[in-house]
Amino acid sequence: MPSSKKPLTYPSSHKSNQVDNYHGTLVADPYRWLEDPDSEETRTWIEGQNQVTFAYLSEIPTREKIKQRLSKLWDYEKYGIPFKEGEGYFYFKNDGLQNQSVLYTLKTLDDQPKVLLDPNKLSEDGTVALSGLSISEDGKLLAYSLSASGSDWQEWKVRDVETGEDLQDHLKWIKFSGASWTHDNQGFFYSRYDDPNEKTQLEDVNYYQKLYYHQLGKPQSEDVLIYHRPDQKEWGFSGGVTEDGRYLIISIWLGTDSKNLVFFKDLTNPNAEVVELINQFEADYSFIDNDDSVFYFRTDLNAPRGRVIAIDTKSSAPEKWREIIPQSAETLESVGILNNQFVADYLKDAHSQIKIFDLKGAFVREVELPGLGSAGGFGGKRHDTETFYSFTSFTTPGTIYRYDMVTGKSTVFRQPQVDFNPGDYETKQIFYHSKDGTRVPMFITHKKGIKLDGNNPTYLYAYGGFNASMTPGFSVSLLVWMEMGGVYAMPNIRGGGEYGEEWHQAGMKDKKQNVFDDFIGAAEWLIANKYTKTERLAIAGGSNGGLLVGACITQRPDLFGAALPAVGVMDMLRFHKFTIGWAWTSEYGSADNPEEFPALYAYSPLHNIKPDTAYPATLITTADHDDRVVPAHSFKFAAALQEAHAGDAPTLIRIETKAGHGAGKPTSKIIEEAADKWAFLVRTLNVEV
């Protein structure tokens, strides 16, 4: 194996004299030129960085062996949860190594399935992905969206389910939107932005979303504008038709804030105005279903862990609202109605609990799950007596169960066959205390019988933001890590939604440092409890989790042996100036605000890299077409880190081409990236394979 002490020569990253004045504080931004991903200078820099990175990775003898094992394990049938519309069932399936999963349809669950849409045939390299779908009420038409190279931009089309032929409908410039059909099967509601500049569409800021109705057979230019707010450029609109077909529910979002508004329109009256039911951004309201004029919502209003309320739209003053299911000790994630009963999905210490209540809120039963893990699904219509759900854990590949709402019995519907023995591994959940004394849970998974001698290579992964909950789930990639003797640790740090809105808010804006303290606390616990030591400890995270990794290595470069920040938000002073970045100011704050600037500047990874510091071995990953977290974040961070770094450890950036933020990434690219990641850690942490 080549010596990891051999210094690497990085491409030149010239420095400009760009300086910005933030409320009296002068901040240099010497790598501003890297914000233009298409300039000749940036393209040359990307090619040079990739040459260094891929040359380094290709020299690692175990990389090919790791890739072969990943490919072998990945090659198993993966089924999605079946769902029913009209007279037919629909589900996704991947034969094993297909780049994209295929959508099938069948009349009954025992029938021979028929391919409805195979995204693998839409591009040679699998970089065109199916990113959204909606099936008409009669089950005869499929509205579906495609995204190319991982972009958030979608194009929607319509397909005849019976013939498999596309109709002439073609809608463009859609982003952050689904489609919801009217019950006459004649069209659907969707949200779009105005046409962007073709050259800068992957960087330009997205404002002024509008809600439209598209009637089948008509050009997009004739779509009916249902609702927009020229006075509110940041508002986004999500339109959904109620199961009884009577109402259009309009949920209005403002950035990534979990607080929303709810308006509605009576679809039985062509002249009906849009009614503002909830017109204050004070809480989260998720529409569940309705009984005529009575609307049911899951909300965190006066209940940070969630509850169910009923609002009669004929008499909708807040004092008339009724509580159906009160807040409990667990966090209520989502609710549906099946068999005229509420199916409530709770999180208890970051693992799933499913409870069923009648429509008056009386407890009926708890669904017995196979263990500590994550359950999802339970979709269907109001009167359905059967439904499906998936269950997964760190050592259980996603298994699909059929659930009888009447008897409460679960039966296995599809169980994947993966080439490993789950009994060889164990998962435990521990609780540790963060810097300020807060109790934080952490899952730890590894091969049975490892020695707690402080010598195990350990992969510590978290997210910590946007109310997102990190729950147990199976990953072939992580299995390969654990087969090599690695430990996987996942703490449920603040900023997430595991314990409701209070847990989320404890990691937002000027409290963001709590998130980093929680993650650092997890690392210190693993070392103190002899799982690992600094030289064998890697930290990782993606997107907001990439920010987490960037902040932690700039705050505690001494604590970690390696770092893998993926598609991270690294420039906390300028993130809001690109694509949908402005929407994150509700989570992070904004450098434009003199009161919020100091906290952002204090932890912004790009601005806290210190000269002549030995940083951990770092492999930054991003993609040249990421239009969620633009690659400039990773580019500028890499350039600054390479310049400041004083040690011998490599500081590399791996820039994927024809890929975006991660959604829709083809299997082949996922396997390549996982092989590179584990090979990098095998070398830098001195793992014996």
Written overview of the protein:
The chain is α+β, with helices and mostly antiparallel strands and 689 residues long. It has two domains: 19-72 and 420-685, Rossmann fold, CATH 3.40.50; 148-414, Prolyl oligopeptidase, N-terminal domain (Methylamine Dehydrogenase, Chain H). The protein is 17% helix and 34% strand. It contains ten helices and 39 strands. The strands form nine sheets. It has an eight-stranded mixed sheet, sandwiched between helices. Strands 3, 4, 5, 6 and 7 form a five-stranded antiparallel sheet that branches. Strands 8-9-10-11 form a four-stranded antiparallel sheet, with no helix packed on it. β30 (396-404) and β31 (410-414) form a beta hairpin. α2 packs across α10 and α5 crosses α6 (544-555). The protein is globular.
Question: What's the SSE blueprint?
Answer:
Blueprint: E1 19-22, E2 25-28, H1 40-58, H2 63-74, E3 78-79, E4 83-85, E5 88-94, E6 102-106, E7 114-117, E8 128-135, E9 141-148, E10 154-160, E11 166-174, E12 180-181, E13 187-192, E14 210-215, E15 224-227, E16 235-241, E17 247-254, E18 260-266, E19 275-278, E20 285-291, E21 294-299, E22 307-312, E23 322-325, E24 331-338, E25 341-348, E26 351-358, E27 363-367, E28 374-377, E29 386-393, E30 396-404, E31 410-414, E32 425-433, E33 439-447, E34 458-461, H3 476-483, E35 487-491, H4 501-505, H5 513-528, E36 537-542, H6 544-555, E37 562-566, H7 585-588, H8 597-603, E38 617-623, H9 632-644, E39 651-656, H10 667-684
Helix pairs in contact: 2-10, 5-6
Domain Peptidase S9A N-terminal: 13-415
Keywords: Hydrolase, Protease, Serine protease
Organism: Nostoc flagelliforme CCNUN1
